[in-house]
Amino acid sequence: MKDYPIEIDDYLSGNMSTSEKKAFEERLDTDPALAEELILQKDMLSIYEDQEWLEGDKNALKTEEAKQLKSFFESEEASDLKTTIREVVSENKYKPYNKSFWFIGIAASIALLITISLFVFKDNSYDKLYVEYIRIEEIPSLVTRGVDNNKLLEDAQLLFEEKKYQQAISIFTSYQSNNNSIEPLSYIYLGVAYLELKDFDNALNQFELLKTSNTLQSKKANWYKAMVYLKENKKRKLVNILKGILSDENNYKFKEAQKLLEKIDK
Predict the structure, then answer these.
(1) Using 50, 70 and 90 to split pLDDT, how confident is the model at 145?
(2) Cα(79)–Cα(73) distance, rounded to whole angstroms?
(3) Which of 90, 156, 200, 235 has the most other CB atoms within 10 Å of its CB?
């Protein structure tokens, strides 16, 4: 007879024939151990498979804690964890059946996810760090008194300051598309506008353009890219870019990068 975990996996993944599935379901009524294992494996799959992370009460999704947890489950760390769990299950799938090992493995995985979930709820969440370290008010103004300023940039900055990011993006994009000589600060404004709307790819693209602009503002690019990874909860990329900033104490936001790295490495 097949080992329970293999049978259950075949059943849940749809690899059984119609007759095999019928026979399996009939056994569930007479084999309590099999029924128990099925419940355990279903619970495990509901945690680490790429499904909706929460179903049922949709109001629960509106809480700040729920948003933080959802953000974690979408992060690189959660992805790595799910991969590890899959590998452990796969490695032991065809080994001689050991109920104790199977049960303990599932229980340990669930406990680990619960522990990480609790960590996400701490006050030092990446969301709060982002609010602490992004300094929008520090971006130099595009409007210079006594100078004939570009009207498009003036309008875009005003919309940006009013947090009308989508409208600001439209104007900044139009400005960049129609000018050969581009004001490098527009890369920062446009990148941050994308970042505030969680359009991370476009934000990174703007900061990469800033980095290659060969201007004084280009030195700020890595810090703003770090802010993208911070808001995106991509710890490994964040750590790497912060270490790059710390390679030279003359780099923009050197001290802030040092403090931020200390906080996320706790």
Answers:
(1) low
(2) 7
(3) 156
The range of the structural domain enclosing residue 150 comes to 128-264
**Contact partners, residue 185, CB within 8 Å, separation at least 6:** 139, 140, 142, 217
Encode burial over 159-183: b for 16+ CB neighbours within 10 A, e otherwise: bbeeeebeebbebbbebbeeeeebb
For 215, phi and psi rounded to 5 degrees? -125, 170
What residue type is assigned to position 192 of the chain? Answer: V
Q: Taking the CB of residue 56, how many other CB atoms lie within 10 A of it? A: 8
Q: Which residue has the tokens 């100078």?
A: 147
Q: Look at residues 73, 89, 121 and tell me which one is the last residue of a structural domain.
A: 121
Domain end, chosen from 63, 91, 121, is at 121
Average of pLDDT values for 38-55?
59
Q: How many C-beta atoms surround the C-beta of residue 242 within 10 A?
A: 24
Dist. CA 25–CA 74, nearest whole Å? 35
Same domain, 44 and 139: no
As given in the structure block, the two tokens for residue 86 are: 């899959």
Q: What is the pLDDT of residues 167-209, one digit of tens each?
A: 999 999 999 999 888 999 999 999 999 999 999 999 999 999 9
Asked if 261 and 239 count as a contact pair (C-beta separation under 8 A), the reply is yes
Identify the pLDDT of residue 1: 41
